[in-house]
């Protein structure tokens, strides 16, 4: 062929390409972001992702007894699994607000939860299940509204400066100026961890504008950060609820319900676990439930071979009960377990041991069930690696077909597993104009439906009159038999 480089002799050319096998990554590594201030810094440096397995006792011992990480690993191991674990140790702080701030971290500096974005690059392991036990349950107070007590005059520019003693994050806002007056202040950041009153001073080239600031409950910032990070990682975060009353749990969950809420599997209340402290003191600890739930996620993944199934209906082998009783009655609607799951989107334990609920905190009902979200995460994480082969290849019909075949083979397998109900794929010419294809852009439409769980089993109970036909026939047969016996006698 004149189009190929000239050669005298024999050579071998890769003449054709076929579809590639899609490999699904592991989504079961439990990732802990917490403090362990007695840890060996050589093995567990601060703000560094470290991978270990649950059976590496010598390495776990280097975490020390103080802090949350060691206790959390005990919670995991008490479920009878030797999990794959990622640990990210943050600095121990002196106040609760400061400790929450360390857990949240900074997205620019990649500290705290944000540091998990570097975990795969640092360890080769993908965070699959993210927890920060006991750091997501606070009901934080922030600025909710600003009321102008005087609008002042002569303003062309003005600045609102908020102050609140002891706040983790002080609120911020911008002034609205109309006709030289400050007519309002728009809150741009509600602040976090308000423990005292909030004041606001307005400065600018005018004078006389004053205001008051109202405060109220805001979304837990650690849980919000967990959802944002998990979206980037295609992971699932397990935030602990407030462990108070169902009313407070409902309010806490409602603040977190949003688009990224699909990546959160909330759990409430806390659980109780037997522990031996300092080698001698036997006691029952009240512990955040997130570690126990994370272990049940990993256990089901290992039993069934992937992340496509809900962790629901498993019984914990590591807890002796819940921190408060949760009412539950088979066949009934009016009980606290159903309220938490169906009304709040918060999962719980029933009968002190069985995980109940498959809900996320999504505000989109399509992503209500955690198994659908994890299946979608697996699809979106798995396909890019397999399709990487065709990046940089010539834009031909054959290569486009191989891309589609690769996708088909993977989704066919998911359909066979029962985790995807069905799918289709097509090439929409309208979405692939010549100008886009000239730039190497290929778009394939891939509608698919991930399999939901069975959530609400309904049985229509009504009288069944034909049953009396059966009864009448039985009576007639009985009488005929009796008559025959009587005649024979």
- SSE order: EEHHEHHEEEEEEEHEHEEHEHEEHHEHEH
Provide a count of the helices.
Answer: 12
Which stretches of 5+ consecutive residues score pLDDT under 50? none
Q: Give the integer mean of the pLDDT values.
A: 92
The rounded distance between the terminal residues' Cα atoms is: 107 Å
Q: Structural class of the helix and strand makeup?
A: alpha+beta
Strand tally is 18
Shape: globular
Backbone CA Rg: 30 Å
Which percent bin holds the helix content? 25-40%
Largest sheet: 5 strands, mixed
What fraction strand? 15-25%
Give the strand line-up of the largest sheet.
Answer: 2-3-1-4-11
Per-chain topology:
Layout: E1 30-35, E2 49-53, H1 57-61, H2 68-77, E3 84-90, H3 96-104, H4 119-123, E4 129-131, E5 140-153, E6 158-163, E7 172-178, E8 181-189, E9 199-204, E10 207-218, H5 221-233, E11 236-237, H6 246-256, E12 271-277, E13 281-287, H7 290-304, E14 321-322, H8 336-344, E15 348-350, E16 354-356, H9 370-387, H10 397-417, E17 420-423, H11 434-438, E18 448-450, H12 467-488
Parallel strand pairs: 1-3, 1-4, 4-11
Antiparallel strand pairs: 2-3, 5-10, 6-9, 7-8, 12-13, 12-14, 15-16, 17-18
Helix pairs in contact: 2-7, 3-5, 6-8, 9-10
Can you put this structure into words, describing what you see?
With 489 residues, the chain is α+β, with helices and mostly antiparallel strands. The chain has helices spanning 57-61, 68-77, 96-104, 119-123, 221-233, 246-256, 290-304, 336-344, 370-387, 397-417, 434-438, 467-488, and strands spanning 30-35, 49-53, 84-90, 129-131, 140-153, 158-163, 172-178, 181-189, 199-204, 207-218, 236-237, 271-277, 281-287, 321-322, 348-350, 354-356, 420-423, 448-450. It has a 5-stranded mixed sheet. A 3-stranded antiparallel sheet has the order 13-12-14, with no helix packed on it. Strands 5-10 form a two-stranded antiparallel sheet. The longest helix has 22 residues, at 467-488. The termini are far apart. The model has no long low-confidence stretch (mean pLDDT 92).
